[in-house]
Amino acid sequence: MPHYKVAIVGAGPAGYFTAQALQSLQSDDLTFSIDLIERLPTMWGLVRSGVAPDHPKIKSVSKVFEKVAAEANFRLFGNVELGRDIHLADLTARYDAVVLCTGSSLGKKLGIPGEDLPGSLSAAEFVPWYNGHPDFTNIPVNLNGTTAVVIGAGNVAMDCARMLALNPSELDSTDTADHALKALHASSIRKVFIAGRRGVEHAAFTAPELRELPKLEHTDVRIDASEVSAAHERAVAEYGEVLEKHLASNLEAWRLIAEHPISGHDREMEFRFLSTPLEIKGNGKVEEVIFGINEIQGGKVVATGKTYSIPCSLVISAIGYESAEIPGVIFERGRIANDEGRVVESNIYTVGWAKRGPSGVIGTNKSDASDVVKLIVEDLKSPKVAGDITDLIPTDHLLIDQAGWSAINSSEVAKGEPLGKPRVKEVEWAKLLEIGSNT
Ligand SMILES: Cc1cc2nc3c(=O)[nH]c(=O)nc-3n(C[C@H](O)[C@H](O)[C@H](O)COP(=O)(O)OP(=O)(O)OC[C@H]3O[C@@H](n4cnc5c(N)ncnc54)[C@H](O)[C@@H]3O)c2cc1C
Fold first, then answer.
1. Whether pTM exceeds 0.85
2. DSSP annotation of 313
3. Are the beta carbons of 46 and 62 closer than 8 angstroms?
4. For position 133, which CATH number holds?
5. pLDDT tens, 253-296?
6. Helix, coil or strand: residue 121
7. Which residue's alpha carbon is nearest to atom 52 within ligand 1?
């Protein structure tokens, strides 16, 4: 009976769904040992460090991940970074297949002057800061001014804007990292602009996120009603009266936001469309963003040459992600070069955001994993016999195994319980390693 060894790198949704797909294919004729390797002492990838704290239901997918981890053929190697602690060639020599599920962790740059001024951050920094990613605990987030500008028109931009514009008391019962919650309570930001380059009809926000906005208890949301009706007219002119479901649903959600009465809360979110950021200005720190005004001509976004400015002290760009490079792997257009998940002519594969780029919800990675696992099984040859990751890690390396991660997980949940929170996140590397390696 052939038995194969598979190393999966990256313990986010793509990694766990790949393990699950392998487990589901096991039979009397085919078995796998699965080693999941993760650079952090904490697991679940962006389910832990990306998904917004005020959307706790989405994180319940972690139960599926822990079920996968409880299977006898699964081992976890946390605090092991591919490219730093171990190298790709060492894995490919020891495993029948190596699946890279390392995600996309770097924020795309705006490429405009002033982008590097203090007070200008990427969502790839701000989001892990409020979500307790140990690499981002101490980054400076300037919440001293009254106005923030979020650049981008997708759900990540929306998460960033909501986190800044909510009354922080609404986050008290969530797993927002303690340092961020404290900073948000002390924040003087009261107005958050969200700016998109194209029209309302082109925005990538999804309807459930839009439909939440009129329900916010302590925040008024502004969008110019004439902008929504103009977007509707343009969409009808382009696609006809019967609009595709996603677009129709989004435009209806925008109409409800525009018609929702303004309550006079001191916290506001305001959408600005057809606005291209041209420059972030300030004397040693962010003071304003200059936007170019666009219009739509023949379905295309065209600059009018007119500009306007939003004075602000914080800018967050949320215009997409790209993968951090790993030595020995070829990257193109911000993701691992691959053909449907196969990476060059070898036993290397990729799944998830590292493969596709930063698109798709958590569930998208499940079907992706299942497709790539089919290719892996198709390509399997005679099983490799000698060695595995345990040959590669020095004995004094602090390894976070499944028991170690369970210790971190239960300690966080236990700390959260008396406070009515799902967990209190541990955010310091040293403390995480101490809890996770003492099992
Ligand atoms: C801010 C934000 C909010 C989101 N909200 C939602 C939502 O509400 N609902 C939804 O369905 N989807 C949401 N998504 C999308 C969802 O999170 C992604 O589809 C999913 O996480 C991608 O999975 P992945 O495993 O490819 O990447 P990731 O989740 O990023 O996992 C990659 C893992 O690889 C590890 N890794 C990286 N490099 C190495 C290395 N060299 N060695 C070892 N390990 C490494 C990382 O530490 C990480 O744990 C959100 C995404 C973002 C950015």
1. yes
2. S
3. no
4. 3.50.50.60
5. 999 999 999 999 999 999 999 999 999 999 999 999 999 999 99
6. strand
7. 50
